[in-house]
Backbone:
């Protein structure tokens, strides 16, 4: 799939943002006043910034409001509603915290729930797609949730929680790659089922494309990352997103070091998300003799 | 709207005969012409005269080579447009309701004024049947020429999709695949019509008729009586000729 | 649950429909042009039209992008920069026509042959040739010589018509259809419709073609033949069928010259005093004229003449083709098809022709007076085009194919092959070539025609060619369509003489329609010692900014096809189908928005300005207002004009006085006219009284002209005799051996391969095919079509890919004896093992067609033409023979042999040329085209 920056920014930042908000709303850390303001501002900034970025992907952002209408069937619509709830409730909770130093625990709890649910909905947009076998798996929401919670813990400064979560996330990511690498061939979709011209996928090949130039489908769905490239990027991604933060957080704490850990995590997450899109192969590529 | 109707009154769709399609792209351009001037925004082309033209088309002709180990390879031209799936994933993912499946005939359409151009429906379609319009930035797909097939301004015989009307080889058939007695259903039955990517569980309405077996001649018995020689040299031939002519 | 948006399912389609004729190729389908606010909104096929019956190909539907193409020329142009630069200034029509008259008038008065007028892909040849004839130059032809003259000529000499515009398979009844060397053909839509019909009936299709795409891809059987060897395959099929006695003796005896006697002395046909071939009647044993009433000609008769025994043509055929050299085992290796498969094909043919015989209950009477209760059908049909004809042995191969059809008795019978009126028309009633030049006077007759012996050649008293293209000379005696591909190189070489003005119309000669493209560009721009161009003046008419525009001195911009009158005439290349004679018009369904004029109207104007007879009245005033006026009022013979329909008071067909309202009547009728062949005249046309009478009535013949098919070609024998040294006009020494061989009166096969050394050095055949969605060079200016074919890889068979360690996307250097090109490759499995190919004419020159100079057409696309020279490499005899068929001069595009080497990817495909300056700029960035919702 085409690794569109807007979507990478969206999934990375909003995942972190909602993760952070979830922790803040559960009172980890329980902060108020100016410190609370900064924490919440970061949380909202990331979540809203991510959401806004996602609208750059739209052909008609001015009609975005319409995306709320189909919550019965569409995960994107559900995500829109859930994020709205999450932002509204955590907004109320944050107001209480920052200006009144009160802990609206029930609202906080609900906020955290909706934050996590939003991330889940985001993940389901991808996980539901049978057309992208690499995403079409239960592991996809698990990774999204794990990264969001681990990242949230990291940003929230919950080092004792963040450490195991980051480690776990790393493991989940690796496991997910191992299974995702086999997903396309295991999906049962191949050029033979796509064309029904023979039972044996090795006995059919694409001869000529319907058009010699490119088109929306090729631009959007057929993106090739070099094999060697992707292996290297995976290692760098995991080290930055999980390895470095774990190391930095394991050494005596300093704000600078924490900052470096966070930056490493975010950069690592961008790489991982870039790979998430760039490596995802849509079955339509089969029709073009490409994957 | 993004929920799929439980049942549609008809299942209108296309039956495409891969044994007959010569790959001429006539249907592609006819479709482009009709749908540029009719339903929704015109199908636009970016960099139309430039280095990398990208236009929106609703119908495209692929071609594949089938390469069996023990027979000569053969080429198949393969038209592809929206299959108007019964279980259309492109519809259910749509957040705005712009994508919907019509109750009366099962046609899957995009209501362009509701479309936000998120592209998700194209992600969900396994067949590559949806293309974003490069200028209008709304999702485009085969309309089954919904503005032709019921159009009372057209003579009755012309109330078929543009691509069907134009196909010179007659490789495209249009009808109600929900009616087992329709011409198209009978054709599908007779010729063993198939679904593309059945494992995707989209339940396509459009069907593909597979190419008939090829290269059967290789197995012809060369000792067939037709070619039993009656003469190997002119003399023998003329003897035979005289006898035969006398018999006439 | 029905909260669906409302949609208008019954919108108004358009304000009005105007019916005219498509021009995107020579198929000439009927179209309905839908207009909104007077603008073209949608184009669809016309259901009533005899050619396409409603269907339309990709090019036809894309017409809207063609009439609005940014590449359209918009005013007359005069060259200001050097030739080839593309630098022009716009001038007025008055200036343009004034200049043309200034150049041409002196030529007309003093030396009309100094004008060479060649009209390329012209659909108005009966008119353009009339102009040339009235001008007085012998130098006129259209593109037929580089296109398919082998096919046309072999068919007409053999049976009075050929494939393509001349005839078609009997799609409704045929059970076995065999297609030789066709990718697309002129009969584009009808062939596809026919294939559809065959498929619907479950009948069988066999494709004989090195490449298996398109029609061949849907064929049930495929014979991936080695290029240039079809003749041998066909003769082998004939060998098997004769051995098995699977030939139609009755048909041969009645309808062909098989029973005709040959003079034992010289091989000419024995004739009676009325010049009618002699046969022996099997009933009475009497020798008499072939058309004597009531006789049954004997195939195996003998006859004593002047003390020697004369045998029949049939006798010669049997002895010749039973020879072991044609046995499948002998030909298999050369053809690249196993003996088993050749036998299997013969078997299929025999089975269909002789076991599936059927009868149509139609009574008819033949020319010998015999009444037939029914029409017997043999459901085997063939079709063939340039795969066979564009080889230097193409004429004889086409002859062989016709012989096979005739031996099977499948020509003009139900289920076989059927002529389209005005065909059948034997070569003997076609005109002969005319070439007598007299300054300030018209030529003595039409330029092109059919020679019947050395006496008809266009030679002067010294035996030199009279025509600039050397048509009808010893080098290519039967060149019935001229040799457009030799005009520029002959004019450049001053051989046979120098010309002054080259006037061309609709031919992209500096690009895809020339062999040796780079060489041609040089010839067009080269100057003599005095600094003058060697070809002094070039006038050109194009509608678009093609590559050729840059090489002309004066451009007469044409309209597009929807903006002018045109006439698709029975006098020329009609659009008939087997069941009816048809002609058609184009008319301005929209008005031009530029300063352009229909080329034919410009010729009408020029003709008058040049005082050409036929274009002026007695008082010197212009005879016709414009082309439309000519179409209606011109008479070729009394009562016969360009259009056959609605003559006289509007009810006369074929013959009739001028009808001033004729064009309106055509428009009313959908732009065309069909006269249906009566039921009892549908088959056996050359011998069928009912058909002959109908054809005379319609004006196709002057009088009934029944004839027999020429399995044995006497005109060819005459040329062969001359080469043997017999006769009054003899060929030059160096051509004798060649003529003796190739002018064989019975079909032969000879190899097109170069001699051995080169054969090993250049082992691979290289071909082109037409893409169905592109028309030669001009599809690329079409925003829709160019997205389908924007570049062309070289397709390479799997075996060669492996041998050369190639992957799709790699680049190779492809070389011939003449030149080399560097191009990208792609793998193809269903391809002859020794053949590479590419799509024709996709490569474009930078700056042409209003395309961005970085367009893939210009950076990755390529032409194979650079590898093909108009002359062959020097032979042992020291001569560089023309790269054409020695019988007809047909350009041998497909004889090309190459070698390849893997190479690193260059920046652009090679050779690449400098950008030409576009006289129209570059097209807009995006198109979002809708006239009105
Ligand atoms: N390698 C290779 N070369 C080939 C062939 C091949 O098979 N292989 N095929 C050969 C054959 S058979 C042919 S016929 C030739 C064809 O080659 P060309 O005769 O060059 O044919 P086109 O490319 O159609 O170009 C004709 C010109 O007509 C112009 N034109 C189009 N419409 C109009 C109009 O309405 N009015 C006027 N005045 N001009 C117009 C176009 O702009 C173009 O410049 O190519 C030959 N060249
Ligand atoms: N769409 C479209 N239609 C066109 C044209 C166009 O440019 N585009 N051009 C028109 C013109 S001018 C012409 S002349 C016609 C030509 O129409 P076609 O005769 O179909 O011409 P080509 O496309 O050159 O195809 C030649 C075919 O012959 C095969 N071939 C080559 N050598 C041999 C051989 O030795 N033996 C056999 N058996 N096959 C061989 C090639 O593989 C190819 O399939 O098409 C006309 N129609
Ligand atoms: S083919 Fe694709 S776009 Fe059409 S209904 Fe099926 S899933 Fe939707
Ligand atoms: S692109 Fe338009 S039709 Fe497709 S899912 Fe998004 S809103 Fe719906
Ligand atoms: S049915 Fe209509 S919209 Fe669909 S592919 Fe055919 S022409 Fe195009
Ligand atoms: S028009 Fe018909 S034959 Fe041509 S590509 Fe389309 S389906 Fe195939
Ligand atoms: S075959 Fe196509 S381009 Fe040629 S005349 Fe017919 S519709 Fe036009
Ligand atoms: Mo041609």
Residues:
């Amino acid at each position: 799939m085409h690794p569109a920056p807007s979507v990478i920014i969206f999934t990375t930042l909003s995942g972190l943002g909602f993760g952070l908000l979830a922790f803040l709303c559960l009172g980890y850390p329980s902060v108020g006043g100016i410190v609370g303001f900064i924490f919440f501002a970061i949380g909202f900034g990331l979540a809203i910034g991510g959401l806004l970025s996602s609208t750059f992907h739209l052909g008609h952002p001015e009609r975005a409001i319409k995306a709320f209408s189909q919550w019965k069937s569409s995960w994107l619509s559900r995500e829109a509603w859930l994020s709205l709830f999450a932002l509204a409730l955590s907004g109320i909770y944050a107001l209480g915290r920052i200006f009144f130093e009160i802990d609206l625990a029930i609202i906080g709890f609900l906020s955290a729930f909706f934050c996590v649910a939003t991330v889940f909905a985001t993940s389901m947009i991808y996980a539901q797609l049978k057309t992208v076998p690499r995403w079409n798996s239960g592991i996809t929401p698990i990774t999204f949730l794990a990264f969001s919670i681990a990242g949230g813990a990291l940003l929230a400064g919950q080092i004792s929680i963040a450490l195991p979560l980051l480690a776990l996330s790393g493991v989940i990511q690796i496991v997910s790659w191992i299974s995702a690498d086999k997903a396309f061939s295991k999906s049962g979709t191949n050029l033979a089922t796509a064309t029904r011209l023979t039972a044996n996928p090795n006995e059919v090949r694409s001869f000529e494309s319907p058009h010699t130039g490119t088109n929306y489908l090729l631009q959007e769905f057929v993106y090739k990352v070099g094999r060697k490239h992707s292996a290297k990027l995976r290692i760098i991604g995991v080290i930055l997103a999980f390895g470095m933060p774990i190391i930095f957080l394991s050494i005596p704490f300093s704000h600078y070091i924490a900052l470096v850990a966070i930056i490493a995590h975010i950069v690592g997450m961008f790489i991982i998300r870039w790979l998430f899109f760039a490596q995802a192969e849509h079955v339509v590529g089969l029709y073009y003799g490409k994957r | 709207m993004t929920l799929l109707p439980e049942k549609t009154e008809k299942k209108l769709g296309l039956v495409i005969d891969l044994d007959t399609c010569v790959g001429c792209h006539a249907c592609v351009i006819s479709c482009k012409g009709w749908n540029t001037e009719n339903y929704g925004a015109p199908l636009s082309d970016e960099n139309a005269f430039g280095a990398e033209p990208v236009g929106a088309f609703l119908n495209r002709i692929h071609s594949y080579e089938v390469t069996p180990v023990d027979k000569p390879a053969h080429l198949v031209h393969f038209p592809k447009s929206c299959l108007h799936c019964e279980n259309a994933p492109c519809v259910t993912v749509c957040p705005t309701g712009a994508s919907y499946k019509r109750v009366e005939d099962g046609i899957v359409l995009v209501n362009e004024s509701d479309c936000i151009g998120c592209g998700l429906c194209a992600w969900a379609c396994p067949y590559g049947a949806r293309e974003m319009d490069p200028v209008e930035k709304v999702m485009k797909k085969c309309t089954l020429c919904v503005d032709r097939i019921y159009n009372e301004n057209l003579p009755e015989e012309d109330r078929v999709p543009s691509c069907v009307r134009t196909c010179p080889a007659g490789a495209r058939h249009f009808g109600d695949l929900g009616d087992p007695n329709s011409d198209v259903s009978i054709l599908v039955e007779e010729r063993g019509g198939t679904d593309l990517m059945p494992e995707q569980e989209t339940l396509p309405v459009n069907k593909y008729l597979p190419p008939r077996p090829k290269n059967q001649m290789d197995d012809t018995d060369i000792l067939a009586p037709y070619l039993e020689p009656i003469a190997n040299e002119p003399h023998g031939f003329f003897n035979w000729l005289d006898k035969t002519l006398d018999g006439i | 649950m029905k909260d669906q948006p409302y949609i208008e399912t019954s919108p108004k389609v358009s304000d009005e429909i105007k019916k005219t004729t498509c021009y995107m190729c020579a198929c000439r389908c009927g179209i309905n042009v839908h207009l909104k606010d007077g603008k073209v909104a949608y184009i669809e096929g016309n259901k009533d039209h005899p050619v396409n019956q409603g269907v339309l190909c990709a090019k036809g539907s894309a017409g809207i992008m063609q009439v609005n193409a940014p590449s359209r020329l918009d005013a007359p142009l005069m060259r200001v920069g050097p030739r080839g630069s593309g630098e022009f200034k716009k001038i007025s029509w008055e200036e343009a026509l004034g200049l043309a008259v200034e150049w041409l008038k002196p030529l007309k008065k003093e030396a009309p042959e100094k004008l060479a007028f060649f009209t390329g892909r012209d659909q108005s040849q009966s008119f353009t040739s009339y102009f040339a004839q009235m001008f007085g130059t012998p130098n006129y032809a259209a593109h037929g010589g580089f296109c398919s003259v082998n096919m046309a000529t072999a068919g007409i000499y053999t049976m009075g018509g050929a494939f393509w515009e001349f005839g078609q398979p009997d799609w409704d009844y045929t059970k076995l259809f065999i297609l030789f060397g066709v990718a697309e053909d002129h009969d584009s839509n009808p062939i596809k419709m026919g294939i559809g019909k065959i498929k619907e009936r479950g009948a069988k299709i066999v494709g004989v073609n090195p490449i298996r795409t398109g029609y061949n891809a849907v064929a049930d059987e495929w014979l991936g033949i080695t290029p240039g060897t079809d003749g041998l395959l066909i003769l082998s099929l004939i060998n098997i069928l004769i051995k098995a006695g699977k030939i139609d003796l009755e048909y041969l005896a009645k309808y062909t010259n098989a029973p005709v006697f040959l003079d034992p002395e010289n091989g000419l046909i024995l004739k009676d005093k009325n010049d009618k071939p002699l046969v022996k009647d099997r009933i009475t044993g009497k020798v008499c004229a072939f058309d004597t009433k009531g006789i049954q000609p004997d195939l195996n008769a003998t006859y004593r003449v002047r003390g020697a025994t004369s045998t029949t043509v049939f006798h010669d055929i049997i002895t010749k083709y039973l020879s072991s050299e044609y046995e499948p085992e002998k030909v298999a290796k050369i053809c690249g098809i196993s003996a088993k498969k050749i036998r299997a094909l013969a078997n299929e043919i025999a089975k269909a022709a002789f076991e599936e015989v059927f009868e149509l209950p139609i009574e008819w009477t033949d020319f010998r007076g015999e009444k037939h209760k029914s029409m017997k059908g043999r459901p085997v049909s063939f079709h063939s085009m340039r795969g066979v004809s564009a080889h230097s042995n193409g004429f004889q191969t086409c002859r062989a194919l016709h012989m096979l059809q005739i031996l099977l008795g499948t020509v003009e019978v139900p289920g076989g092959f059927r002529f389209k009126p005005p065909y059948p028309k034997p070569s003997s009633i076609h005109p002969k070539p005319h070439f007598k030049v007299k300054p300030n006077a018209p030529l003595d007759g039409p330029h092109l025609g059919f020679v019947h012996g050395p006496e008809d050649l266009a030679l002067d008293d010294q035996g030199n060619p009279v025509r600039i293209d050397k048509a009808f000379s010893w080098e290519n005696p039967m060149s019935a369509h001229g040799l457009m591909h030799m005009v520029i190189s002959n004019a450049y070489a001053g051989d046979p003489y120098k010309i002054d003005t080259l006037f061309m119309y609709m031919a992209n000669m500096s690009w895809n329609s020339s062999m040796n493209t780079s060489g041609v560009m040089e010839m067009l721009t080269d100057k003599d010692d005095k600094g003058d161009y060697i070809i002094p003046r070039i006038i050109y008419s194009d509608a678009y900014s093609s590559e050729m525009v840059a090489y002309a001195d004066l451009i007469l911009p044409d309209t597009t096809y929807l903006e002018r009158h045109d006439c698709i005439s029975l006098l020329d290349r009609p659009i008939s189908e087997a069941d009816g004679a048809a002609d058609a018009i184009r008319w301005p369904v929209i008005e031009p928005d530029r300063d352009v004029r229909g080329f034919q109207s410009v010729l009408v104007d020029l003709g008058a300005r040049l005082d050409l007879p036929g274009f002026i009245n007695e008082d010197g005033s212009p005879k016709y207002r414009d082309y439309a006026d000519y179409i209606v009022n011109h008479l070729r013979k009394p009562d016969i004009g360009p259009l056959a329909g609605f003559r006289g008071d509007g009810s006369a067909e074929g013959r009739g006085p001028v009808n001033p309202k004729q064009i309106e009547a055509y428009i009313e009728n959908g732009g065309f006219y069909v006269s249906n062949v009566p039921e009892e005249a549908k088959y056996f046309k050359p011998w069928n009284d009912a058909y002959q009478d109908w054809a005379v009535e319609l004006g196709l013949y002057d009088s009934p002209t029944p004839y027999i098919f020429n399995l044995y070609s006497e005109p060819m024998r005459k040329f062969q005799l001359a080469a043997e040294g017999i006769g009054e006009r003899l060929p030059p020494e160096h051509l004798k051996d060649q003529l003796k061989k190739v002018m064989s009166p019975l079909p032969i096969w000879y190899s097109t391969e170069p001699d051995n050394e080169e054969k090993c050095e250049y082992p691979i055949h290289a071909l082109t095919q037409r893409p169905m969605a592109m028309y030669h060079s001009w599809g690329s200016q079409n925003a829709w079509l160019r997205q389908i074919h924007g570049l062309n890889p070289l397709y390479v068979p799997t075996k060669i890919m492996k041998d050369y360690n190639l992957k799709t996307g790699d680049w190779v250097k492809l070389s011939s004896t003449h030149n080399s090109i560097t191009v990208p490759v792609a793998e193809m499995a269903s391809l002859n093992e020794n053949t590479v190919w590419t799509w024709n004419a996709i490569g474009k020159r930078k700056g042409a067609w209003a395309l961005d100079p970085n367009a893939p057409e210009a950076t990755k696309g390529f032409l194979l033409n650079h590898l093909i020279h108009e002359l062959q490499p020097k032979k042992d005899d020291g001569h560089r023979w023309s790269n054409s068929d020695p019988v007809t001069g047909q350009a041998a595009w497909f004889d090309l042999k190459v070698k390849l080497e893997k190479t690193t990817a260059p920046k652009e495909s090679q050779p690449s040329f400098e950008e030409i300056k576009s006289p129209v700029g570059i097209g807009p960035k995006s198109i979002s085209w809708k006239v009105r919702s």
